[in-house]
Amino acid sequence: MSAATQIPGYIAGTWTIDPVHSEVTFITRHLGVSKVRGQFTDFEGTIVTGEDISGSTVEATIQAGSIHTKNDQRDAHVKSDEFLDVERFPTLSFRSTGIRATGDGYVIDGELTLHGVTKPVSLEADLGGFGDGMAEGSKVVGVEARTEINRSDFGVASQFPTAVVADKVKIELDIEAVLDN
Fold first, then answer.
1. Using CA atoms, how far apart are residues 148 and 62, in angstroms rounded to an integer?
2. Kind plus residue range of the DSSP H or E element containing 77
3. In which residue ranges of the chain is pLDDT below 50?
4. What local confidence, expressed as pLDDT, does residue 1 receive?
5. Exposed (0-12), middle (13-18) or buried (19+): which is 20, by Cβ within 10 Å?
6. What does the alpha-carbon distance between residue 165 and residue 167 come to, in Å, rounded to a whole number?
7. What is the pLDDT of residue 155?
8. With contact defined as beta carbons under 8 Å apart, do 7 and 53 qualify?
9. Is the Cβ–Cβ distance between 26 and 148 less than 8 Å?
10. Quick check: helix, strand or coil at residue 59?
């Protein structure tokens, strides 16, 4: 019996990420004492579920300039060439290289391209499940995933000491995708 047949309602197919019902967020420390949270508001992607979940793939693109941290001055600074440099690097992207089951969840291995640098990353993922969508006959899938990266590995704000802005950045994804017809 494949892992897919053990997942209630599992459907093999191509799914489009629904940005209205999804979030791409991040958290980092500021001055070592507090957390700054933000999100990217413009993103798109595709999930392809294979006959077996290990044959599935994920691809996503995020518009770097869509960053929102609830502070316009900070957003402008993060978009500048001192951090994300959205003029030179307008997008972040992720492409999976493998998916594997681990205990109660999954790990999505892949490559993250940020600030023109591509590095391997692994996302710890929980499958929210498969279900009926809002439109008649539509199907949806939900996935939560998280990882932690070092911004310096991608050349982001390397000149800023970690006492000001932490090197570690937690990334959290809450994704709902709709089955393509």
1. 17
2. helix 72-79
3. 1, 5
4. 40
5. exposed
6. 6
7. 87
8. yes
9. no
10. strand
Contacts by 117-120, CB closer than 8 A, 24 or more apart? 117/153, 117/154, 117/155, 119/149, 119/153, 119/154
The residue ranges of DSSP E strands in 6-151, in sequence order, are 13-17, 23-30, 34-40, 43-49, 57-63, 67-68, 91-102, 105-114, 117-132, 139-150
How many other CB atoms are found less than 10 A from the CB of residue 171?
A: 20
Contact 42, 20 (CB under 8 A): no
Residue type, 113: T
Give pLDDT tens digits for 134-167: 899 999 999 999 999 999 999 887 666 565 778 8
Q: Residue 161's pLDDT is what?
A: 58
Q: What backbone phi and psi angles, to 5 degrees, belong to 106? A: -140, 160
Amino acid at 101: A
**pTM given for the model:** 0.91
Cα 94 from Cα 109, distance rounded (Å): 10
Could you count the other beta carbons within 10 Å of the beta carbon of residue 60? Answer: 22
Contact 175, 17 (CB under 8 A): yes
Distance CA 45, CA 64 (A): 15
Name the DSSP letter for residue 74: H
pLDDT of residue 29: 83
